[in-house]
Specification:
The two termini are 33 Å apart. The chain has four domains: 193 residues, no CATH class; 113 residues, Nuclear Transport Factor 2, Chain: A; 119 residues; 92 residues, Immunoglobulin-like. It has a seven-stranded mixed β-sheet with strand order 20-16-15-29-28-25-26, with no helix packed on it. A five-stranded antiparallel β-sheet has the order 19-18-17-21-22, with no helix packed on it. It has a four-stranded antiparallel β-sheet with strand order 3-2-5-6. It is globular. The chain contains nine helices and 29 strands. It has 572 residues and is an alpha+beta fold. Strand 25 and strand 26 form a beta hairpin. Helix 1 crosses helix 3.
Amino acid sequence: MRIFKRFFPVLLLLPTILLWSCGGGGSSSSGSSSAGTLSGVAAAGAPIIGTATVKDSSVPPVTRAVPIAADGKYSIDVHDLTAPYMLRADGEVGGREYSLFSAATQADEGGTINITPLTDLIVANIAGDIASNYYNSGQFSGLTQEALDTQIAAVTAALLPVLTQLGLDNSIDLLRTSFNTDHSGMDAVMDVLKVSVDEETKIATITNVINNSTVTQDLTTNGFSGEIDGTGTATGITSIQDIDSGFQALSNLFANGLPSKAQVTALGLFDETDFLLDGMNYDMFLDMITMDAPVGLAFTNITVESTYTVDSVNYMQINFTVMEYGNVGSREQWLFRQNPGESIKALGNQRHVEIHLEARAEYRPDEMVGDTIISGLVLDIHDPGLFLSGNGVAVITGPGGVNQVYVNDIRWDYFVMPGNNGSPVMALTDAQIALIPDVNAEYTISLYDNTAGLMTLKETYTETIRKRPYLNSALTPASFPTFTSATPSTLVGFTGGTVSATWTLPAGLGADYFHVYLGNETNSANGEKRLSAGNLSASVLFTPLGWTATYGGMNLGVTDSYGRELQLSKWN
């Protein structure tokens, strides 16, 4: 868990260089404001963080977009649009990007139209194709009330064993039932059912993640194969609700200050014996969140990634979001374990090494050697427990022809790229970036112990980036924030005190951190301020250093809506 973003000391840069849908529609009408709206919930096990868009049936079609609220709710004014409509929800759930679709007729105006993986499937069945193709075609004549109701009934019947376990029946309307994202009722259905569609075969697979049973459907014929099993679903939902309640209670402890270790432990949320998070045991984790965490820390938007059982012991992989200073601090995936007759407990991510992968672009203005803009990936590897004995080697492979070696710098506990002049950025060409999937690209990180030159594979992890890096050709200095003032104006000769800066932000970007680095031939110091998205200034206080800086720099990091980072670096 990255409570605070870490930075590689830039030792070699010195002064030279000083990142599951339904809709509604209606023809033009006046009437009341509620009659001319489409509203509902956009969710896929948790609220979709992003935007909802309606597309009407006029020629050319008219689209209208609104932000989705934190609880997944949206509302779009369609009183001057033409029915039938399709809706689209774009955004993030559980660290992955989703585009989900839905549909509505004029009769649906003023009522509830949800956008979920199941509404996406309903639209796909009407289209006989994946829902995105239907949305892009703009030909929505098949979106009639009868067609929607027919497909709702068919999908409901196929899912009845799961619905029954959750206290629902075949009278439920998967498209129009109002619900809250609270892990009950319809939201519980979203928690346990995952939908995937093979774009080539047009086969949809619905999986009950509690028992891993599946049913498939051919979108071209609407025929179902297999039967989904509801066994254990109710018990699984209870465990999900318990985890959510535990995280809410943990968040409440940070509402007005930092909790004590006793308060955190008293929640009973953590397995104190087998907990492991990025190389930290429970005691180390407890120290971190009770001494170094920000006030207001919150744990939200939990979703189930997978479940399995070993020797009557149940395990759940849970995705959730850590909020810091009102921003997304990190997206986590933890393992939970439930022994027979006991409550479910958090085991952390069970990783011995902290790994974080993100898309990042950097702008380094330099009056002497010229401006530099690079785009690529940053792989942050931190080995706090020296799992790899200080002789670690990491290899990242994946889309874009990425095959990069990192080595453990034994002077510290982080990894660096040999020959990269101390920069953490793995610069990629536009040709490489173009080969990376636009969303949800996966990379494999293999960790080796290289003691005595003998490479021994220790662990392998998978990391996902929500959006591929920016193309270098798409970036200019105007893509980045701009410093408007800095005090002191130069960090050369700095011996302690306050470093302050102000800046402007390009539209669509939110501030994330302000970082100051100081150094000379034998000493270095770092200071950082985490920011709220709208911050336009920050200060970092250094106690007297006891030495004089001969170089220093300021890094300002901002993020876009996909979590991609754009960093401005100013060195002197």
